[in-house]
Write a structure and sequence with these properties.
about 300 residues; TIM Barrel; eight-stranded parallel barrel; four-stranded antiparallel sheet; alpha/beta; 8 helices; globular
């Protein structure tokens, strides 16, 4: 027998495979393809305190081995989420993780407080949002800002708080330590890497925003390296993501130190990817005689 259960901040997942925020909605779009009960966890698209319209179009572009997006965290806001999405999520025996975004600390705290009495499993805080009070520098690109927002959210949150870190920093270990010091129950990484694409025939930017977030297999080696560095820097659990397309990719992240993983961009390519990764991990465990999946965490030599 194999045991694929993983416990993160007191919350037990039936397996370590989750969906990356922004790539799975709240699961409604994928329900006809994927048995949502088989997922370890479902991380929703970002939820803000008021509706966000997002960036102008075009805001998605294909690249070698991945994609660029500048959606701008478009979402209908917390009211719609509580009325429409949460009842849908509560139908399933899968841990729901709500991704929270905002432009000020107060924005984030408002959403966190509205979630306090719901059945959600965890909160994932997107600190790659621009902090409008600090000249639009992302919360996750400054240790002091990261420490402050983490501490403020932890003071109000009723659920475990996972801080989703930005890779667009000099030292990911330093950022991980700041989140841990402020009381984070875990961290998730990486968010997208800032990139750009230019249409040489039109001599125009492929995205109206000029830059966007690069995701997909192209970023996996960077993501694995950052997960490894963060795992060496902190003792809290890590959820790893960035270019996972196969079970082999997921296992690589776990060996580097991740307790769980998220499938993101590949959901757009193949909506069955999450299930294939889950089944592939089970096959790997049987092949190599791994009885407890937790034995893989950080086991690289």
């Amino acid at each position: 027998m194999i045991n694929t259960k993983i416990t993160i901040a007191g919350i037990t997942l039936k397996n370590p495979v989750m969906t990356a925020s922004g790539t799975f909605g709240s699961g409604m779009e994928y329900g006809e393809f994927v048995d949502l009960n088989r997922l370890g966890g479902l991380i929703t698209k970002g939820v803000s305190n008021i509706p966000w319209v997002g960036n102008p179009t075009p805001r998605v572009a294909e690249t070698y081995g991945g994609m660029l997006n500048a959606i701008g965290l478009q979402n209908p806001g917390i009211d719609v989420f509580l009325e429409r999405d949460l009842p849908f999520l509560n139908q399933y025996d899968t841990v729901s993780v709500i991704n929270v975004c905002g432009k000020t600390v107060e924005d984030y705290v408002e959403v966190v407080e509205r979630m306090a009495d719901t059945k959600i499993g965890m909160l994932e805080i997107n600190v790659s949002c621009p902090n409008i009070k600090e000249g639009a520098i992302a919360f996750g690109q400054n240790t002091e800002a990261l420490f402050h927002i983490t501490k403020e959210i932890k003071a109000k949150a009723k659920q475990p708080v996972i801080m989703k870190l930005s890779p667009n920093v000099t030292d990911i270990g330093e950022m991980a330590r700041a989140a841990e010091a402020a009381g984070a129950d875990g961290i998730s990484l990486i968010n997208t890497i800032t990139g750009m694409k230019i249409d040489i025939h039109k001599r125009k930017f492929a995205l109206a925003n000029k830059t966007g977030g690069l995701s997909g297999p192209a970023i996996k080696p960077v993501a694995v390296r950052m997960v490894y560095q963060a795992a060496k820097a902190v003792s809290i659990p890590i959820i790893g993501m960035g270019g996972i397309a196969t079970a082999e990719d997921a296992i690589e992240f776990m060996l580097a130190g991740a307790s769980a993983v998220c499938v993101g961009a590949m959901n757009f390519v193949n909506p069955y990817t999450t299930i294939e990764v889950i089944e592939g991990i089970e096959s790997y465990m049987k092949k190599y005689g791994v009885k407890e999946i937790s034995d893989l965490i950080g086991a690289v030599e």
